Amino acid sequence: FQxxxxxxxxxxxxxxxxxxxxxxxSCMMHKYxxxxxxxxxxDKHIVFIGDSRIRQLFxxxxxxINPQVKEEGNKHGNIPFEDKSSSIKVDFLxxxxxxxxxxxxxxxxTEGSVAKPHIxxxxxxxxxxxxxNGSNEALAQYKINITSIAPLLEKLAKSSDxxxxxxxxxxxxxxxxxxxxxxxxxxxxxxxxxxRILNSSSRNSKAKVKxxxxxxxxxxxxxxxxxxxxxxxxxxxxxxxxxxxxxxxxKIMKPIDGSCCQPQPPLxxxxxxxxxxxxxxxxxxxxxxxxxxxxxxxxxxxxxxxSGEEKKPSISTPNFSTLEMxxxxxxxxxxxxxxxxLCDRANLFMKENKFYTHSSFFIPIVYILVLGxxxxxxxxxxxxxxxxxxxxxxxxxQLVILIYHISGASxxxxxxxxxxxxVAAYLFQTGYGHFSYFWIKGDFGVYRVCQVLFRLNFLxxxxxxxMDRPYQFYYFVPLVTVWFMIIxxxxxxxxxxxxxxxxxxxLWHFGLLLKLICLLTCIYFLSYxxxxxxxxxxxxxxxxxFELNGNVYEWWFRWKLxxxxxxxxxxxxFIYLALQKRQMIxxxxxxxxFSNRVSNVLLFISVVSFLTYSIWASSCKNKTECNELHPxxxxxxxxxxxxxxxxxxxxRSVYSSFFAWFGKISLELFICQYHIWLAADTxxxxxxxxxxxxxxxxxxxxxxxxVAHEISQITNDLAQIVVPKDNSTLLKRLLCIGGFFSGxxxxxxxxxxxxx
Length: 756
Fold this sequence. Notes:
Blueprint: H1 6-12, E1 14-17, E2 21-24, H2 34-41, E3 45-50, H3 52-65, E4 79-83, E5 88-94, H4 100-108, E6 119-123, H5 126-131, H6 136-156, E7 161-165, H7 184-197, E8 210-212, H8 214-222, H9 234-253, H10 269-298, H11 322-344, E9 350-353, H12 358-374, E10 376-378, H13 387-407, H14 413-441, H15 446-466, H16 476-492, H17 499-504, H18 507-527, H19 530-536, H20 542-546, H21 553-561, H22 565-581, H23 596-618, H24 623-646, H25 649-652, E11 654-656, H26 657-664, H27 666-676, E12 678-679, E13 684-687, H28 693-722, H29 727-755
Parallel strand pairs: 3-5, 3-6, 6-7, 7-8
Antiparallel strand pairs: 1-2, 4-5, 9-13, 10-11, 12-13
Helix pairs in contact: 2-9, 3-9, 4-6, 6-7, 10-11, 11-28, 12-13, 13-14, 13-26, 13-27, 14-16, 14-22, 14-24, 15-16, 15-28, 23-24, 27-28
Membrane topology: Multi-pass membrane protein
Keywords: Acyltransferase, Glycoprotein, Golgi apparatus, Membrane, Transferase, Transmembrane, Transmembrane helix
Pfam families: Cas1_AcylT, NXPE4_C
């Protein structure tokens, strides 16, 4: 931790990811849209002063406000620009030399009640080198002139943002004869003079002229593509303009993926209360541990003075009370949440933008597949979608999704469409698993519901408090929670139809199918009635859970994207369990699921279907159109995979313990990645070790997986305490939880009011 200002890094250092993506050192750049640029610069006056290079930067900057602007007009004169809709004025003032004329213009803004520009961008030198043929006298005069201008710029810097743009290097081989005297040696001398003189009288003051030196680094990589050896190519100018926009606008707009120049957000009231709670838990646990330790020492074996024999205590290890287990869990959770906060809310660790390449996605995929195959073991049972197999399925899907997120592969449409199938497969398992449980066990008790809801939501609720994020931000958990409640409601409402009842009378099977048809009808209706859907989830208190950025559109989009797949999972479970009950499938070890002929036909159809979907997904041209078809066709590849994985007996009898281990903590991995593996709420990458990307990923991944595993254990421990089996005790706990959320809502309202 260098403790430096990320604005300084943004203005002075960085590197290219690929050919056109600029990565500032230690922080993330936001790519501003026209609407965002207008909102940031509303009622602002920006001035660019300098030569033709500054004019290029001026045009790139105003194109961020209005892309339709054309580079026309007097090249050696002033150029005004105004966006009347946002009251933005941007002027270019032609002053190709640092001289008396430039000084007079700058001085006019420091006198009296003249309106000062909000942003001033200045830079010039190449004309002085050219006109005076690169003489030493011209450099000496440049130093004198910039010395006279520096105090004026420093005075303006107290109320405006002032940037001095250092001169970019040139590509000497391409310069015309009239520009041959402009050498990189001369440019370096002029830049050195500017840096030494600027801010010399205000080194300890906050009001400083900001030196825009990053343009030099960008030019060193791209000046070879220049048309004349002097002026930067358009892509480089656009990068400089975007850096300028980030420097000024990030602290105003506070974009999630723009960590450069953003101050650390202040602690909210709820965050302070969470900090106090975890601190008290740690202190409480330490006190109880010390008391236990002292008692244990007193009971330790001691020498009998009369016989000289050693007596053994009746209990060799201390007993852990419920209170101590509770405090122990919250103690560990408090330390973990501190790490979460430091990683993604404090400006302690660096963050970088994602950059996709095919190798960054596919090479890790091959690597984990090889590892997964290496750790192959026999399953305890050979049923279709047995526990080990579903854990394995969740595990490899989660690892692929993690690689997808860290590599930024969402920009590559074929990969995006296949990842959408993996997310759908998770929801398919939700439908399959919960339907199977309720259908076989017939357990619709409150204890079961509370256990599932607690395990799904505990980590997310804690993160909402600690990281100051809405519940809907962690969209997958609300999705599986709502679908669990829909499955429960579908099967629990009268008449409750379970396997035991249906075995006595086949008509009950038709009753259950009727329930599933009603569910499908409701899903279909809501998917084509956005207004009704939004009204349902806009009612308080549902709106508090499902709103994001003031509306429920994001929730509507996420729900609609995989609206049928949970129903498909329920239907598959019903058909499979019916076939299993009638002994129409063979699930013995090494046996194919059906007769050889049927198995071969189904395998062939499954492989063809699987490949057909992949070909279709790979040929997708438009994300919107493909997303429209996805809910109806994703089940094809899911069912094809299940059949390929389960029809051959030898394939069904083995599983990968490597993938299964990750599958058991897949939910924690999915949620934890938001803040301690990725950064800026998944928009970037956390950098614990700068300068060593591969080593950084290894270290951050190790910590991330350990934390996810630990949180899984904490959740399991707390679930046993918070959700007891005794109904009267459970009711009291539910009242306490209701009181907790009421208090949370009250403090949230106070917090929102203080923000406004």
